[in-house]
Amino acid sequence: MDANALLTGLAGVLAAAAPVLFAVVGETITERAGIINLSMNGTILLSAVGSFAVAYESNSLLLGILAGMLIGALVALIVAFSSITLKQSQVAVGFVLALACRDLSYFLGVPYMNLPGPRLPGWAIPGLRDVPIIGQLLFRQDLITYASYALIFLAWLWIFRTRPGLILRGIGERPAAAFVRGANINRLRYLYTVLGGAIIGIAGPAFSLNIKAGWMGTQSGLDGIGWIALAITIFGGWNPLRAALGAYLFALLQWLGLVLQSRLPGIPSQVLQVAPFPLMILTLLLVNLGNAEWVERTLASLPENVRRTIARLLRSLRASPPASLGVPFEQE
Amino acid sequence: MRKSLWIHVAFQLGALVAALLLTTLILVAVGAPPLGAYASILRGAFGSSSNLENLLISWSPLLLTSAGVLITFSAGLWNIGVEGQMVLGAIFATGMLRSLQDTGFPPALIIALGILAGAVGGALWAGVAGALKTFGGVNEIFGGLGLNFVSTALTIYLVFGPWKRPGTGSMSGTQPFDRTLWLPSLPDMQLSPWSLALSILAILCVFLLLRGTHFGLRLKAVGKNSKAAFLMGVPTWQYSLFAFLLCGAFAGLAGAIQVTGVYHRLLPNISNGYGFLGLLVAMLVNYQAIWAAPVAFFFASLNTGSVQLQLLYQLDSSFSGVLQSFLVLLVLLGEGARQRFLKLQWKPRWMRTPS
User: Fold this and answer.
1) How many CB pairs under 8 A join A and B?
2) Quick count: other Cβ atoms within 10 Å of Cβ B243?
3) What CA–CA distance (Å, rounded) separates A144 from A127?
4) CATH code for B49-305?
5) Which of A115, B196, B212, B309 has the most CB atoms around its CB within 10 Å?
6) Would you say residue A100 lies in a domain?
7) B chain contacts of residue A80, beta-carbon cutoff 8 Å
């Protein structure tokens, strides 16, 4: 493989990661507020078919993308209503919604199967596109991919560098403390769940109007992406930057699977496509291992220098969820 | 007590009516005649003896997966990996039949060993998810989901690789087994009384286990309040792990009867969503195992009946899934509304929020 093909491939990885990125950042914002939106897998499918249908009928890409965001926001609203107002289990509602939206998208999508439809045009940024290597890698993409770059940094800035972001972290960690400081916990949780849902909803059009244009029902190959994105959110330690790294790693692995496929014709492509999953379990294990009690006990029995190295390694990998994730807020 | 029971029943029925209203709206939206569609589902499920037979054939695996997840729900665990555990059961059963088919053992023994291997395979796969949860701190939802994908890949690898049928491998699965290795069915039918009996036995066992045994009581204690159970002397992590193993064994049995009794080979999509559907059944019956049988029957009838929709109205058969999940969603919302507005405390144990 020559350098040019490699760069083109890697640029493709950046574009392919965009939908996962939207999903992961949307979920990160939601979970930072203390709500788990487990419906993501169904939401993405439904927003993919919904935005394609709207864009196809109206011939407007913008309307299509907005439709995707609206679907994501509405599903998130159900999650928020049932968990905040009705105090039902977020996991139960989210899981059922994931199945409901998936089946609904396959049911409603039939008339739009295999139609040639609108697709987001590529747009190389003048000036930047001619920067050697970087230009070819980053700046000969399309608007949704550019938006995905921007979203990573915007979300990071919002969560960690602004005052509302501080409150956002507060309502996920210690809602009682944030409440005492004057934050309206439940209203903010509604707001961030719906906002996160709208961002998750962009993942749909990022597929159906861009990298996998059109709708192919169960053959679309999108089923499962939402579950992966949930895992990457954990891997990302609820930090948009680390989550983005996870999303890019995932896309890179899938691409490597395709590249290896042409070298190893004996292995069915579906097998290499799932290579990320055992790795996902492994990384989740590493991320969580630092929290396990028996690890600490085992470490204590090791020689001092070994213990310190392993402990440092585990600590750097470790990620702890927002302390009040999944816990309803009760005003005493 | 009486009054709250009636309110409970009223809310469940209300959820069913609301779910039907919603799906009717959806049918109208896609331009299908709602009454005709529902009638075709009914005909597709009960209209002929062969339809009814198909319904019973899909009832069995659903009963088994529901029985399994009732155990993990009781222990407060979200075993989403049940889908993959069913697949591993199918793989192990196929492997056992393949390795014994030319040995000259009596076919009945080979089939029995195959089914047993299925249970072992499912339990092992669930054991991985359980070990990840208890020793690695990996939430069972994510461990299970990852293992589901791995199990699918493993099936595809086997179907196209080592176990491919003579010639080229295809999505239609491995080479079908010899007729002698099929789970015996009723004359002129595909329905095997053995798989039906096995699944009914399974749900009965789970019912008795959760209802009448010391083990079941302690398991529910772990699910309800793990810390309190631990202080009362219940070995909590052992109970959780055991719940995983037991659920995996039931799911593995479901996979094994699909191989020996229904398809007679290994298929890429052998679990066919029965694992997830079992989760829905268990949520709907709020882990009262005795209700799982009729609810699973209802769900299976929707599944078999909706195939007719495709033939008659060119509608996708995922309609049954829409109706099923809407029903569960509305039951959840109704339950929440009841708790909030009627102030009646009645919260099923699996609904507790995860920590």
Assistant:
1) 158
2) 25
3) 19
4) 1.10.3470
5) B309
6) yes
7) none
